[in-house]
Request: fold
Amino acid sequence: PQSFPTYDSRPAEGLSPTPPPRVVGVGLLLERNAAEANVARIVELVPGMSAAKSGQIELGDIVLAVDGFAIGDLDLQEVKHLLKGKEGSVCLLRCLRGNTPFVVELKRCQPPANYY
Reply:
């Protein structure tokens, strides 16, 4: 009979397990309406998070792309997934204000403790 080695799942002595990276966002809330089905409009900025702190994003701005992915045909859950990532990672938003396109680079971070 063949024997297989056994593995101890406990961490090695003196080492602690590495927690998984936190998945966080940039602090904005998007909305779509029936009249603008393919438009993701910013309706809220979370105080203390990178979207609000950047000073570059305003309520009513339209998000066109997240990290190079056009979001016009994505549902809001898919867009939310693109906005989230490892804490400290960079999120690149291509937006539109009126007829003026612009790009914003934001760092993903934890929401303030008093947000919830």
